[in-house]
Design goal:
single chain; cytoskeleton; two-stranded antiparallel sheet; 5 strands; Arp2/3 complex 41 kDa subunit; 62 residues; 34% strand; actin-binding
Length: 62
């Protein structure tokens, strides 16, 4: 949780991983879904390109 740069301001109610394990979607009680980068270079190797652009830093809000 410390790596998330722009945290949700309300209670998180849902979390879902993208199949490539480099994106995570977070739903919360403020009726928003936030998409974060979960990319870790030593684990994932090279960043993959997605519909939301190139995945760069861990915890970045896309």
């Amino acid at each position: 949780a410390e790596m998330i740069k722009k945290r949700p301001k309300s209670t998180v109610t849902a979390v879902a991983w993208h199949p490539n394990n480099q994106l995570i979607a977070v739903g919360s009680c403020d009726y928003r879904c936030r998409l974060y980068s979960a990319f870790v270079r030593v684990v994932d190797g090279q960043p993959q390109t997605s519909n939301w652009g190139t995945i760069k830093n861990t915890g970045e809000l896309l």
